[in-house]
Every structure is written in C-alpha cells, then in structure tokens.
Amino acid sequence: MLQKQQQSSCQSHNTCTYSNESDTESNESSDSDEDSDENGTDTECDIEDDCRSEECESTSSCSEEDIMEKLKDNHSKSIDIECEDDDDEITGSQNDVSCNERTCMHYKYSSDSLTESCSGSSEATIDITHEQQDQLLDDSEVTTEDSDGAKRSHNLGYRICGDNIDKTVCSRYMRLDRKNNSLHYFHLFAVQSRVCIPRDEMHFTSMPDKTEIAATLLPSLNDDQILKENVAILVSRILTNNLKFFRLTFQELIQWHIKHPYYKEMSSKSLVVPLGILLKNENKASDMIGIVNHIHHYVPAVPDIQEQVLSTGETVDVDQTSLHTILFGGDQLTCARARSAIDNKLNSQTPHKRFMGMEPVIEDWHTKVNFLRVIWKYYYNPKSSAEHGTLFQLRNVIHRTNVVKDPMKNYNACDDFFVLVIESHIVALAMNILGMTNADQAPDSSILPDAHLLWMQPDDFRTNVLKMLTLRIVDELSLNFNNFMYKDTDDKVRQYSIQLSSLGCLYLEYSDAIREGDGNRVLRCWRYMLPIFASSGCKNYAIEAFNLLLQHDYILPPQEAGQLIWGRFINVKGQPGHNIPNDLHMEHLNRILKQSISGLGANKSASAMQRVAQALGAISPFLRNFDEECKISQLKGVHNRQKAEQDMKILLTELAPIVSLGHSRRHKTFTNPRDPLHMLSYSELNAWIEKHIT
Questions:
Q1: Residues 57, 440: contact at Cβ < 8 Å?
Q2: Contacts of 468 (CB under 8 A, 6+ apart)
Q3: Where are the alpha helices (DSSP H) in 101-256?
Q4: DSSP assignment, residue 292?
Q5: Distance between CA 336 and CA 54 in Å, rounded?
Q6: pTM listed for this prediction
Q7: Please, where are the H alpha helices in 435-491?
Q8: Most CB atoms closer than 10 Å: which of 218, 434, 489, 607?
Q9: Confidence category of residue 349, pLDDT binned at 50, 70, 90
C-alpha cells in the first residue's frame, strides 16, 4: 500500500488503482442502441482504438476564476490547456484503498450549505453553445414536495464522460519528412441527469466496521430473491416468443417492461452536450495530467479566500474554496488513469490542485463485454467441437463462423450467439419439464393438467400459473449466491448446461436492466459480478466493482450516490426500454466524429478536427431538418434482431438430451465444470474485500 503523507491536509479518495495486468477493453463503434459493430480499422487506414500504456500521474489544476471567460471563447478557438508541474514524479500504482471513518464522513456527511450554494451553478461551466447552455440550465432545476407540503428545489446535476479517439492519417507520398501521422486525442461529452435525488433521500447515521462493509457489498438473501423474480419475468418473455402454447395462453399477461421508481424519467430523452476533443493522448502521463486538469474546470465551485495572520504577524491568503462533486465516467483504464492522477495530487495545498470534487466512475458497456469474456473463458473451447451441448459445438452446428474465441474482437456476433444459446437452453428446459417434444405441442405433464383449457381461465389464475411455471424453471438454475450447495452428481454434462444457463440469465438481467435504465437492478448485478471477476482473475474489474459499490454505499454524498446509479444511461429516442450505457454512446460519437474527420480530406489539421468535434451537437439536428425538407424517410436508428427460428429449432434438437438428467456423463474438455460465481467461498470473498479496505 502506498503510504500517503500529510493525510490531514488532503482529501482521500476511497478508491483503488490498478496493476498492469492485461484486462484489455474493446473500443468499437456501433449503429444499434445496445450493441457495437467491430471497428478494428478506420475508414482510411489502420487504427488502434485502445492503445494503452502505463498508469498516469496528475498535476495541479487551474483556478476557477477564468472559467466563464474561457467558455465564451471555447467555440471560437481551439483549447490546448497546459498544466503546471509537468515534471512531477510518477508514484506508481496502488493496490489498496484508504477507507477510514474520517474519509467517509468527509464525503458522506458534507454540509448542506455546500450543496445548496453549488446547486445554483452546477450547470454553469459546461463547454456548450449559448442555446444549449440555456436549455441545460432551464431544465436542470426541478421542484419536489415534501410530506408536510413544503416545496423544495433541487438541481439535477450532470456527468462528464470521456474516452480516447485514435485515427491514423496516411500520407499518399511518404517521405522522410512526410510520414503517416497517428493521432491520439481525448473525446468528451456531458449528459444531464434525468432523475432528481433529494439530498435527504439516502442518509447513513454511522460508519460500520470493515467486516460489516464487506458483508454489505456482496449479494444478500433479498438480492437472490429479487434476481429470481426478475429472471422469471425474462423467462416468461422467452417462452412466449418461442412456444406456441405460451403465446396463445399468456401473451397478454406478459410483463414486457420491469417498472422501477424512475421509469418515467428514464423513458424520456437525454440531454447530451458534446464537449469536443482535447489534443492530448491519455497514454502519456503529461497529457493525462492535462485531461484531468481540463475536466476539473467543470467542477462547480464557491470561491472563498480568507486572510489569516501568522504568529510572525504576517498576513496570508488561504484558499478555502468549496467544491461540489461531479462524476467522470469512462472505461476501466480511463478511470484508473484519472484516479491515479487525482491520488498523486492529494498532498497539494489547494482544493483545485488536489482535483477535489471529481470522482471517476466506471460505465457498463465495457463491463458487459468483459463479463462475456469471463463466460467464454470457462465455457468456450475450440477443442470441444465433438462434445454435444458445448458452446463451440453449438456454434458449429448452426454455422456461426463469426463467433470468435475472444468476444472483444467481434462482440456483436458473440452476444447474439450467446443470447440465442441461453434462450434455447431455457426453452429446452421448459419443454423437458412440461413433457413437450416440439415447440408447437401443448404440455403433457401432471404439472399442468387440462392445459388446453387454461386459456379460458381468469387473468389472475393464469398469472399465478405462469409465475409457478417460470419459477420452477428458474429453480433449476444455480442463481442463489447465499447458502448455495450445488447438487454434485455424476452428470457433468447437465451440470455444464445449468451453470452456463445461470450465468446467461445474469447476463440477460444485466442487459435488460440497462435497457430499462434501472439503476438498482444494475447495481445488484454489480454485486454478483464482484465475486465473478474476483474468482476469474479479472483483478482490475473486480476492484472496479468494489469501488463502485463502495462509492454508492459509503463514499459519495446522497445526490451524487443517486446520480451514480441513475445517471449511467442515455436515451437517444425518448422511449421506454431504449437506454444504452454512457460509454456505448461515446463509441457512437467516436464513430460519427471519425466519419466527419474523414470528410475533411487533406485538411485534417488540429484546429479543423476540434471544430468538427464541437459541432457534433449541431450536425444531427441539421441533417434531420435537411431530410425533413427533402422528404427523406428517417432511419429508425435501431437494428432489429432478426428472427432465428431455424437456428433455435436445431439447437433445441441438440439440447433436448442435454437438459435431461443422465448418469455418468462427462465432457472430455470440461471434465469438472467450474462456476465462477461460487468458485470462492463467502469467507474468502470477505477476506478479499477487507484486504482492500484500510
């Protein structure tokens, strides 16, 4: 653990930094609302979107006095902020997190006067046009009514997200003084929160000890029960879409959207403001300093310079500026670099130089990709091509040649294939329980007598029957985290199928929670992914899961803790179930920006690229108005998933004997399937968490 000096004079960030193990990430663009197309090469030449280097450092930030003046000039000239102390030493990475009562009290119990004084200016420092700024400010303040009838105004706040954007400009005639130019810049946008979290909605009276903290970060019995109920709803949708009996009997009873307290707000359109690009490479320590310094300019501040008299009689000015906290979202490596930059300046003298008020947080799309990588690690093996029921054998049966060993190289293909396999497992398991031999047959089982008359029963009766059937199917899966005891039989083939289906159901729950913009469900999924990442060797993502849960439960003030889970999504359509993660929207903006830069032709100068990036917010409305004037039909912007009835029919034939209980069956490649959710014991997970809390 890195020993921090002068702890009493600085603000400690209760988060971890990372080792240099290769938890690589995919940085691919997409045209769909929830997926991203592989984009390993640019339209003109090869690029590497995730060229990563060692951990970065930070320097002191600039003051806030000139922010508004800078904002007026940001759209008329390019900005290249130079930072102070570029020659600071890099202190290296940290593996432990400082979590003590004093630190958490500083975050969790910040005075209301700071929040109130900052609320009026929390939107005032976004680098946007005057029209966008007026819209952001007008929509940012909402009024709520307390239980006693008193009205209170609250500020919605905003989050800033960033990611690297890389492009190679090829020289037509290469010379010693004219070579290919590899550009590595940093792209930013701001998104306004759609959910109003009152300051007193979440409140903790005391800080628990390390043992209690570790217990609260892991899934509870209540989490297990809620997860089962949500998966049962997802199972009912799958059965209705693929089995004729369920479609005719229960279709009008299916819950197609799982409602949550902020369902209406998350179904509204997001206000996204592109902030342009910085001509800095996050792979370089000095450039990462400039990136963090620039982002810190958006932190709302209340200047407070007080005079103090020293013992010698000399009068000095002391900076006691109060800073409001904003969230900076990005992928895992971006968060690690930003957090390392902040930690390296904890001993600076002023709040601005310590980068106070800026909290890096991880987003969901890259996490979802790495979750699929973990599943591939334990259940996908090219050597199992002759073993019925394995992922690779099923891939070959339906000729999915675009499914590769590393999902990051073609995530869309791997995601589509995996979802189809999980749905096929669920349908095959339901057909086995109900005694059905094909998808068009009615159930023939004592579990559901007189099934052909069920459609005439009242809605309440049919709803209870549907819930009973779906919960029966879910009970076959190993979704319990607490008090889990797997029935270890000699049928390792069925054990492989059940474990794969269980992780697949968690994957489906995570995906559906993102689409609905349900922050509580997403946070619950993170609790399950913490032991999965910790046991599968994904140390960096395990630490990120630990940081995220700790930030929400103990570190951030109430409003920021609410924004942490409810501000993770962007809805570009303003329709229910059309939310996407913030980092996926950043990939979409990167794709549009690269296309716009390609249109510059030979005029790819730094200033031209900055102008294009700052114009992204106006390009889409301009093109939409042009199409309306020309009466050009609008594209939906969503890739509808093509039906795979023939594929599922083949998979059901393959899986029918797999889901049935057998004896002494074993895959040659997967002789003893391992479930990463239960690979570490509860005590081992507690010890892992306590080790990262000091």
A1: no
A2: none
A3: 101-108, 112-119, 130-140, 210-217, 221-242, 244-250
A4: H
A5: 10
A6: 0.79
A7: 459-475
A8: 434
A9: confident
